[in-house]
Design goal:
67 residues, Thiamine biosynthesis protein ThiS, Ubiquitin-like (UB roll), 5-stranded mixed beta sheet, mainly beta, ThiS/MoaD-like, single chain
Length: 67
Amino acid sequence: MNIRVNGKDVQLSEQETTVADLLDVYKVKKVFSVVEVNRKIISKNVYETTKLSNGDAVEIVHFVGGG
C-alpha cells in the first residue's frame, strides 16, 4: 500500500494497515502524537481501528521534550 506521510511517499506492508501500526513503524508514542488522515484529525482512542487505504495522506505531529 502506498500512502503519503508528512509529505513523503511511503510504502507499507500488508501488516501495517492502521494508524497505530504506522505510529509503531515511526516509533511515535500515541500519547505524544496527533494524527490527521486525509485532512481529518483522528481521535487517539480509534488509532487501533482506523484503517489506512492506498493513496491516503497522513500527517503525524509528535511532541518531544527538551530544553
